[in-house]
Amino acid sequence: MEATIRKDDDKHITLILDGRLDTSVTPQTEREVEPLFNYTNCEVVIDCSRLEYISSSGLRLLMVINQRCRANHCALYIKGLREEVQDVFNTTGFVHLFDFK
Amino acid sequence: MRKRTRSFANRLGIWIMAVLIVMSVIIMGAVYWVTRDTMAHEAEERYQSIVLHSNEKIRGVLSDVYVAAINNIDIIEHDIDDPDKLQEHLERMVSLNQYMSSCRLIFEPDVFPKKGHNYEIYAWKEWPRAIHSKQMNETHPDFLIHSWYKPAFEKKEGSWTPPYFDRAASQQLTVTYLIHLHDHQGRKIGMLGADVSLNWLRERHKEIDEANHRLYEKGISAKSYCFVIDKDGNCLIHPNEDRVLKENFWEITARSSDMSDDEMARKMMKGESGICKLTSGDDRLWVFYSYVKYAEWTIALVVPEEIIYHKGNVMAAIILAVFFIGLLIIYFSIHSVIARHTKALMRFATATEEVANGKFDVELPAAKSTEVTVLRSAFTHMQASLSKYIEELKETTASKVAIEQELKIASDIQQQMLPKVYPPYPERGDIDIYGEVVTAKKVGGDLFDFFIRDDKLFFSIGDVAGKGVPAALVMAVARSMFRSASMSHTSPQRIVDSINQSVCQSTDSYMFVTIFMGVLDLTTGHLLYTNAGHEAPLLIGIDTRFLPVHNNIPVGLRTDWEYDEQEVTLHPGESLFLYTDGFPEAMTIDNKPYGKQRMYDEALRLSDERLDACTFVKTIRHTERTFVNFIPQSDDISLLAIKYIGPHKRAYYRRHLTLANDVQEVPALAIFVGGICEDMNFNELATAGVNLAVEEAVVNVMNYAYPEGTHGDINLDVYAADDKSITFELRDFGEPFDPTEVATVDVSAKAVKNRPIGGLGVHLIRHYMDSVSYERKDEENVLTMTKLLLPKNLKLK
To answer: Does the ipTM surpass 0.85?
Structure first.
């Protein structure tokens, strides 16, 4: 699992998730996305096009990101969900919690 | 690098040569000195005799002339008054005497007044015979110019004059014997002079020199020469004519720095004869000198030392050369003789190498000497022996290979008797069996066997007393009897009894077999067993222990022994571990046995891990191998593990995974589940779903079942009883927790935003699995999840 934060410009930040986001890697990934919360008043996009798998702990991490971005007045979007992950989002109702691009 | 060696011939040759050379040097030195001295002595005598001979000759000549003068003096005095007659006498004297060159009569003044104041008659000889005479007077006053006349006249007796140059007639170096003439009254009136020309003497010494040069001094640069001196040291004869009468020997010797020639001159003056060795510059000279009486001369022969020793040196050189050539001949003869004889050794070496290469019938070289003959016969003997031994070795090896081959076949047959396909019943989920036999020899006496009939597992393990082929044969009998008896009986007691009868009949050499035999009812786990003298098996489970066994005697000893049987019920998950005594009795190198206690402790430790039969056998076997430090075993070892899983686990597909309660195990779980999904041919969506559901269930247990910080196992059994569904059974010994009681989560758009995080995992399990059930059983939480193998979940074919 790799989480990469890419700054496109002053107002656009992209978080790229690559691999399997299962319970074993979630704590590590949580530490890796910490710098994301330094940005305020910008647009954060989570690029999930390479995210192969997500477990409930992964979903929980996404919820944490969602809440903290909101606290920073950032707009959060998710893009590029693969079918299997999309299915999880559907199943858990997470489709209602996020905005998609 | 190979050290350079010299051949024997060479070395012996060199040694002999060294000794010969030392001896020769000594001998040659002695010979050289003796030869040189002898030759020198010879030369010395020769030259001495030449000088003496010459001396004699001079003396002879002078005495002839002297005698003639004496003899004629009377005749002349008789006719002294007749001068003309006197002239005749003189002419006669000259003609009669060979060596008298001339003669004269010199008269005192006025003896013959008629003839003038001075008167002298002179007669001489002209070569060869003509005799002339003339009278001399004032016009030819020959005698007056000679200084010698007056002193001689004064003397009382006749005497020889010193040499003088005769200008009157012969024009030659001359000496004269003068004797007084008396008149009839006895008065001295003059002198008769008999002349001797020294020309003959010069010629003679020249001849002597030439003869010496020719005869004795050939090939030598230095030459000998003669000279004659008179008593005053004047040189009379010398090869160098310029020195005659001009040089004085005494003066020459006095001038030279050498003292020995002065001594020689002194001796010469005293009229002695002898030999003197002089040094003149670099040359050493030998001077042989002899005093001539009457004339008072000394003849000297000067011989360079080189000439004296020349002959000796030449002789010595010839001897040396002959010796040297002789030595060379000896050396080469020795060398060739030895080389010829040792050549045989080289040929032997070549032959030996060929023998070493396996050519035993190689032709041995012929022997010429006794030593080589001995060697040759020893070699022949060795060849014969070697050939014989090799033949025997070949036969032994061939028969050994044959035996090995038969043993190999026997071993193969025996191995084929043993069950060898594991798992043996892959279609059955209720039993897991693994066994292995490691024989110490090629064929062993251990056996085990099992088979299932009517849902009953018949199994046995045994150990034949003894090893090798006989043991294997007894084992084969026991095994076939086990099989045939098990076909008609279900009671181990009966079966063992049948085996006992057959073994008793088939062996009369007290070859007994210890057997543990059991019949396990796979539906109930009820086990009936009979132990015939075998080791008590281990029952591994919640209460790991040795199975209690009765003390029945081994089979094959007594036909009338009544075996009894015992019973126990196996719970699902419990295992029976059977072994032969070779296992606990495995020894370390210092004879420390592995032991039953250690085996029990290891089994107890492994019981917690709930290993499958194969892993258990291999793990416990490894503990024994490690303990004995992998030294080769001395006894056969058979191990058989039978794990009773239970009737409901019957499945055609079965996988098991044990996890620790640590989320870091999740990737391993993902791989495990991924493999199962692959086996089930799930499509990607179903694979992701099953993965997620199992992970959520496992993580749930990890997070909540065991108290934080404590270790606990999570067992995941996966099985498919048919091709309709696959079941994931998750078991743990943690706190009782029923996830199915967790309330369903509302995932609608309206609800989701307000709900707390939690319960999502169970929601996902429910979503992705087709049925989920929970039960608390024997202190275990058992969560069973089933996924149907519906077409929508499977990959398109």
So the answer is: no
